[in-house]
Amino acid sequence: MLDPHANMPIDHVGHDLKGASCAVILLHGRGSSAEDILGLAGAFYDERISFLAPQAANNSWYPNSFLAPIEQNEPWLSSAIAKVANLIQSCATAGIQRSSIVICGFSQGACLATESVARHPAHYGALIAFTGGLVGPSDLELHHHGSLAGTVVLLSSGDPDPHVPWSRVQASARELERMRAQVELMCHAGRPHAILDKEVAAARSLIRSLF
To answer: Which end of the chain is more exposed for a tag (fewer CB within 10 A), N or C?
Structure first.
């Protein structure tokens, strides 16, 4: 139970990891699955990309809100962040530079993607967070160390959203900009808790710009 996600499977479509020009790590939301989030691979598809989607234990990366005190989401949160970090390392070991690795998630997966990048800063290909932000109970506690060295970040969310306050998305943008990321915010008034076609199109354009 100390590392609940460690031995969970990783789904894969697209190019083999070795020899791929780019890797896109897709992180599913609470109650969803790796298979579901891999549906984005069709929209983002390029024959040079390897798409990887880890599966969370019990279909959830952590049990409580991403705004809860950090300790209330342990050890699941640390296990999830380690899972993402290990997957990034696997991509690097296969010869894919971090500047060609995209971390993308929806909802709880978007929060995990954002927090993982902030805790392990580097020049990534991109961070794409559909309805998510940095993890923690207060905007005042958002403080991470290191540089994202110009990593392009897309934070896209609805306002209002039943799970992710727009104020937290904005606070996350400020924190990532402080870490030297290039952040684009997209706000969709009255949008349901889902990914819109125009969000997918913006993400696809960002990924294709890596080539």
So the answer is: N
What number is the average pLDDT over the span 47-67? 98
166-201 tens-digit pLDDT: 999 999 999 999 999 999 999 999 999 999 999 999
Res. 1: pLDDT tops 80: no
**Contact status, residue 148 vs residue 181, Cβ threshold 8 Å:** yes
Residues β-bridged to residue 49? 22
CB 191 within 8 A of CB 160: no
Q: How far apart are CA 4 and CA 11, in angstroms?
A: 17
Total residues belonging to the chain: 211
Tally of CB atoms within 10 A around 16: 9
Q: How many helices (H) and strands (E) does the chain have?
A: 6, 7
Homologous superfamily, domain 10-208: Alpha/Beta hydrolase fold, catalytic domain (3.40.50.1820)
- The two structure tokens encoding residue 57: 């234990």
Letter string b/e over residues 184-198, b meaning 16 or more CB atoms within 10 A of that residue's CB: eebeeeebeeebeee
